[in-house]
Q: What sequence folds into this?
């Protein structure tokens, strides 16, 4: 029987855990090679967990971070067995440790052929294009190192892209040494001297990381944070008792206003009982895809316009120690906060001149030696300039969603083409699936996607085997 192949492009959490789940599929042996494409020095950690600084913590307690939905203690056991538990601050561990955990899991799959016949190999390169296979169904993936991989099935697991440029053109500041467009690059903060003035754009989890990093480096210069809403991520309450699901009250509601009214009622009820609001929002998490999918596009757009900023502050939380440090930095005046949006950045002899605008107020100007973009990952596939994305977008085989959240797919994650037809070859997993689920970012959602997609790809392999047998 012909050996089949699945190519997974991107070896961060999503792509690596998909490879691991493919190796765990049960049943008759598969005759299949899995090609995992990842240009970083090792597959597994991806962008989020390649962090080399020990002050960068996971923002979710360890107990919620098992790579396997059906083995909730897996990560905690790994920490214990490997002696890495000392890297945890209370229940929050370093992202570095988590990266090692993922690297080890995928490393096992790369080292040994799986019992089910799947044979996984890592290509330390990036994919530049995916073209239809001229010899029949499937595709040919071209890598930067010149390799061509014939693939029956291809999965885009491209993850999070660096933040968008913060201002409209001109962008002549992009190559300025004081402009840091991607705060996650290795050594991103190393050129900052302890007395340099630094301005951060954004006040989310990335800004928290950068401030903690600068503090650990003994930075003494002026620190300014510019954000539109001026809010910081709230502190996690890891030991709060769970709140019962009230999804039945939300089922069938198709406006944001109706849903918000019910949620507010439950928050008030929880607070009246002396409970925190956080578990009320957390109780919605398993049902968020259904709530989101129940809103027509205009309601989804309304949510993004008016509530997404607030949602991200309430939903994406900081470890309590980090939140306390930010409060302290603000209260002591070490960090100055400005509300507004950067409208223009101009290189000067002293660094960068930043013009900040806010509705109804005169523009302000601040000069800083360094400007760091902390506005969060870019997931708007209409604007992503990565060569592979551009190639597929121009060929009409990858279609960005109209709200700028990710990619259009069918229910299984198969890419829809420009004619709205689901591809039989191209799939996606990870943050790119936000148009379908809205929350498609954190480990609990992504590990479940890896299980479901691995099963689906397993079924597709069986169908290919079946048609080969019937044709023979
Ligand atoms: C800084 C940061 C911290 C986070 N912390 C947490 C946390 O504490 N808890 C949590 O639950 N979630 C966290 N997240 C959310 C995060 O989205 C997920 O946890 C998860 O790591 C996403 O994995 P991914 O594989 O989809 O994306 P990524 O980690 O972005 O990995 C995608 C990979 O694809 C590769 N790639 C891209 N293009 C190509 C190409 N053309 N060819 C080959 N390879 C390519 C990249 O090199 C990259 O390694 C964090 C996210 C970020 C950005």
A:
């Amino acid at each position: 029987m012909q050996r089949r192949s699945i190519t997974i492009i991107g070896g961060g959490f999503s792509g690596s855990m998909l490879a691991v789940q493919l190796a765990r599929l049960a049943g008759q042996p598969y005759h299949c090679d899995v090609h995992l494409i990842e240009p970083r020095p090792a597959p597994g950690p991806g962008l989020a967990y390649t962090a080399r600084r020990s002050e960068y913590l996971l923002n979710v307690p360890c107990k919620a971070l098992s790579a396997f939905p059906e083995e909730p203690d897996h990560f905690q056991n790994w920490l214990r067995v490997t002696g890495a538990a000392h890297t945890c601050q209370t229940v929050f561990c370093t992202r570095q440790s988590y990266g090692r955990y993922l690297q080890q899991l995928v490393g096992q799959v790369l080292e040994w052929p799986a019992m089910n016949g799947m044979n996984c190999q890592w290509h330390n390169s990036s994919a530049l294009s995916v073209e239809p296979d001229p010899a029949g169904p499937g595709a040919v993936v071209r890598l930067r190192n010149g390799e061509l991989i014939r693939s029956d099935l291809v999965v885009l697991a491209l993850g999070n892209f660096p933040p968008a440029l913060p201002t409209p053109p001109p962008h002549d500041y992009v190559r300025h040494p004081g402009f840091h467009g991607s705060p996650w690059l290795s050594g991103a903060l190393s050129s900052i001297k302890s007395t340099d003035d630094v301005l951060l754009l954004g006040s989310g989890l990335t800004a928290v990381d950068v401030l903690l990093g600068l503090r650990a480096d003994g930075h003494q210069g002026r620190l300014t944070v510019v954000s539109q809403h001026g809010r910081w991520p709230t502190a996690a309450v890891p030991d709060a008792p769970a709140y019962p699901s009230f999804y039945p009250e939300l089922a069938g509601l198709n406006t944001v206003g109706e849903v918000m009214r019910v949620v507010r009622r439950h928050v008030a009820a929880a607070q009246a009982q002396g409970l925190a609001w956080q578990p009320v929002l957390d109780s919605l998490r398993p049902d968020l895809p259904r709530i989101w999918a129940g809103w027509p596009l205009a309601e989804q757009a309304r949510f993004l316009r008016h509530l997404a900023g607030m949602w991200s502050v309430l939903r994406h939380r900081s470890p309590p120690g980090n939140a306390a440090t930010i409060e302290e930095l603000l209260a002591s005046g070490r960090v100055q906060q400005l509300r507004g949006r950067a409208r223009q950045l101009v290189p000067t002899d002293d660094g960068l001149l930043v013009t900040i605008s806010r509705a109804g107020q005169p523009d302000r100007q601040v000069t800083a030696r360094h400007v760091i973009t902390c506005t969060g990952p870019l997931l708007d596939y209409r604007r992503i300039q990565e060569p592979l994305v551009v190639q597929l977008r121009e060929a009409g085989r990858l279609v960005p969603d109209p709200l700028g959240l990710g990619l259009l797919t069918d229910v299984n994650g198969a890419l829809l083409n420009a004619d709205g037809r689901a591809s039989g070859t191209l799939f996606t997993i990870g943050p790119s699936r936000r148009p379908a689920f809205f929350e498609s970012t954190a480990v609990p959602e992504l590990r479940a996607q890896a299980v479901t997609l691995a099963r689906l790809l397993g079924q597709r392999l069986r169908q290919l085997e079946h048609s080969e047998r019937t044709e023979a």
